[in-house]
């Protein structure tokens, strides 16, 4: 007779008692996961999270209370979970998982790693570390009501980077507020700002740096002291952005200096944020005004914009044309990119216009952002562009900003709970030595034809073309060697695109020329030089090593002068939406449908626009012959390895076999993004 300890076999229960596991992320999924682990019987747990607790986390991250605001998520999560199981041995790290201290040897300490992350960069890094350490990884993510859990094991399954990911559509809150790296981050921030000033306030849409954040000084002793101080009054006092703006009479210059000067100067005090990032540059209204940037062209253009806005409103009110239709003149105007001073003037004018609209509506009135409202669109365009300039990004036209502005997927506490339970169930299979029974499981918003919300799929084998887990990772990059600098190669290609943390690059020229060194200052003089200055040309090969990730990538350089405008490089053969080759056996395709997700700043935070269970599938829809990469989806897309933000998702490959459509019942998966 099988001996049981609770609901588990004694051998498995003993394994839980002795094994050591790592949880990366202590946010939406992480809180639920830590609780599940200790209640299941896990005794040795280490948890790491860079983030601190914000008021907006309290509606779903149940291990945190109001008195914890401003404290380390990892530390408070540990203390809260110990109340469930005081005998558990939990170690908490308030740090980034991408810190070099957490090397391959660190990962080898664990029998199992569980991700509860909210961004792609950290997911890529943990994926590579687990591959290097040969430790099983359970990846997860959620996006609203959708979620996914999958298992990654070196040599047996696809790794997180085996399938190309689409551009990120949802972003961590800490990225929006503190470390934007793409124009879309600034556009989302500007939309949040509109609501904070003129619309319905939402704690999840805060735009200012957290003044209670212990990371500000990056002094552990000071952080502890500040956390203790915040505990005394059980709260961190905050002033509503809208209340402050009202107290100034919505003065556009005071708003400007707070948002683009004072808040940026505060961000600069968070020293550690800027060790590996370019620091932002604050703007001062008076200095810009005195400088008279663009020799007053901003004013002229502003008058033109105002005139066109009036004309647009007259057209909308006096004709039956669709509000989305624009005249050729408007289109030309919208496609121009303003200078910094032009954006300043546009910001001032839009604030004054929106202030007047608020006053007309009366006390406690609220405005709703609408892309077809000229003043609202001008506000978002100007605010987003000013923030882009501060963080050294190329500014965008009004047309581009309008087309990029999208919706943020909310975090749902129930989704986090379901996914966290599924993570534990997959973990129990791994510890039982039943890796072959592990599955990728998708949580859908609506039941499918078989009335199932949970859809399991067989794990896919590793991709032979993966530039991470292949035996000899190799890629071809198309770029202009006469225009691409060494710094661009390092930051935009190696770090941002290929997810390296501290790359060393050597030119395969027979001399072993070192192009980039991870040792600080060693090759800094090369940064501003072009690749062609080092003899790199069409056909050159570069070997890039990241010793922290124990990862080597061979890069073939393909020189071209025909890249599209604003495109710095292309990875040859990369096609996220490319269809797979025709199936040799149509019946294999006729199986389960499923979905998946995707989302980048180095952080283990789970605080995001879209964030981070204990359900047993009794009546499985699974068909053993159907790997998840072959599963069909009516929409023509499939969600693939979670970047669902610890809460988020990704597109996959479209169906190519028409016969599969007719026979597949589970074809109502909603593909995100």
From TrEMBL:
It is found in: Nucleus. Residues 203-238, 574-673 are annotated as: Disordered. Pfam families: ThiF, UAE_UbL, UBA2_C. The keyword Metal-binding applies. Its EC number is 2.3.2.-. Residues 229-238, 642-656 have a biased composition (Basic and acidic residues). It is an enzyme of class 2 (transferase). ATP binds at residues 25-30, 49, 57-60, 73, 96-97, 118-123. This is SUMO-activating enzyme subunit 2. Residues 574-667 form the SUMO-activating enzyme subunit 2 C-terminal domain. It comes from Oryzias sinensis.
């Amino acid at each position: 007779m099988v001996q049981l300890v609770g609901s588990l076999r004694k051998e498995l229960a003993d394994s839980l008692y002795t094994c050591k596991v790592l949880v990366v992320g202590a946010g939406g999924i992480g809180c639920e996961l830590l609780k599940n682990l200790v209640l299941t019987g896990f005794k040795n747990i280490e948890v790491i999270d860079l983030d601190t607790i914000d008021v907006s986390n309290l509606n779903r991250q149940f291990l945190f209370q109001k008195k914890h605001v401003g404290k380390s998520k990892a530390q408070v999560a540990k203390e809260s979970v110990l109340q469930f199981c005081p005998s558990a041995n939990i170690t908490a790290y308030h740090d980034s998982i991408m810190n070099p201290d957490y090397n391959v040897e660190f990962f080898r300490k664990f029998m199992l790693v569980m991700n509860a992350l909210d961004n792609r960069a950290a997911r890529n890094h943990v994926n590579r570390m687990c591959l290097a350490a040969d430790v099983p990884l359970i990846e997860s993510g959620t996006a609203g009501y959708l979620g996914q859990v999958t298992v990654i094991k070196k040599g047996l399954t696809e790794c997180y980077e085996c399938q190309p990911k689409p551009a990120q559509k949802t972003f961590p809150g800490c990225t929006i507020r503190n470390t934007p790296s793409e124009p879309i981050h600034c556009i989302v921030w500007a939309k949040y700002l509109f609501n904070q000033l003129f619309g319905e306030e939402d704690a999840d849409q805060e735009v200012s740096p957290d003044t209670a954040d212990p990371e500000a000084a990056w002094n552990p002793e000071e952080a502890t002291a500040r956390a203790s101080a915040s505990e005394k009054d059980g709260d961190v006092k905050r002033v509503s952005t809208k209340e402050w703006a009202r107290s100034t009479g919505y003065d556009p210059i005071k708003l400007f200096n707070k948002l683009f000067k004072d808040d940026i100067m505060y961000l600069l005090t968070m020293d550690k944020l800027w060790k590996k990032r370019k620091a932002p540059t604050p703007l001062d209204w008076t200095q810009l005004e005195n400088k008279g940037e663009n020799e007053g062209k901003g004013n002229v253009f502003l008058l033109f914009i105002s005139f066109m806005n009036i004309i647009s409103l007259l057209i909308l009110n006096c004709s039956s044309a669709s509000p989305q239709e624009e005249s050729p003149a408007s289109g030309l105007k919208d496609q121009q990119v303003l200078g910094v001073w032009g954006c300043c003037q546009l910001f001032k004018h839009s604030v004054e216009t929106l202030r007047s609209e608020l006053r007309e509506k009366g006390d406690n009135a609220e405005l709703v952002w609408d892309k077809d409202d000229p003043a609202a669109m001008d506000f978002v365009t100007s605010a987003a562009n000013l923030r882009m300039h501060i963080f050294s990004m190329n500014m965008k036209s009004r047309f581009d900003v309008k087309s990029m502005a999208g919706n943020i997927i909310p975090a749902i506490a129930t989704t986090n709970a379901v996914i966290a339970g599924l993570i534990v169930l997959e973990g129990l299979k791994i510890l039982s030595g039943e890796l072959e029974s592990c599955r990728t499981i998708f949580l859908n918003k609506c039941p499918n034809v078989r009335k199932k919300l949970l859809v399991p799929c067989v794990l896919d084998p590793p991709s032979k073309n993966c530039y991470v887990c292949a035996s000899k990772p190799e890629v071809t990059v198309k770029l202009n060697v006469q225009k691409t600098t060494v710094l661009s190669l390092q930051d935009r290609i190696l770090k941002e695109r290929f997810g390296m943390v501290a790359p060393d690059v050597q030119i395969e020229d027979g001399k072993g020329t070192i192009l980039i060194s991870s040792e600080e200052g060693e090759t800094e003089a090369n940064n501003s030089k072009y690749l062609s200055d080092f003899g790199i040309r069409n056909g050159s090969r570069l070997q890039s090593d990241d010793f922290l990730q124990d990862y080597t990538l061979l890069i073939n350089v393909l020189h071209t002068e025909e890249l599209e405008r604003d495109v710095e490089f292309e990875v040859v053969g990369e096609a996220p939406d490319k269809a797979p080759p025709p199936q040799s056996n149509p019946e294999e395709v006729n199986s389960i449908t499923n979905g998946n997700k995707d989302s980048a700043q180095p952080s283990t935070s789970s605080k995001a626009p879209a964030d981070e269970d204990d359900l047993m599938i009794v009546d499985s829809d699974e068909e053993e012959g159907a790997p998840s990469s072959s599963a069909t989806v009516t929409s023509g897309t499939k969600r693939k390895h979670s970047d669902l933000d610890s809460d988020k998702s990704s597109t996959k490959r479209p169906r190519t076999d028409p016969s599969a459509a007719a026979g597949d019942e589970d074809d109502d998966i909603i593909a995100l993004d």
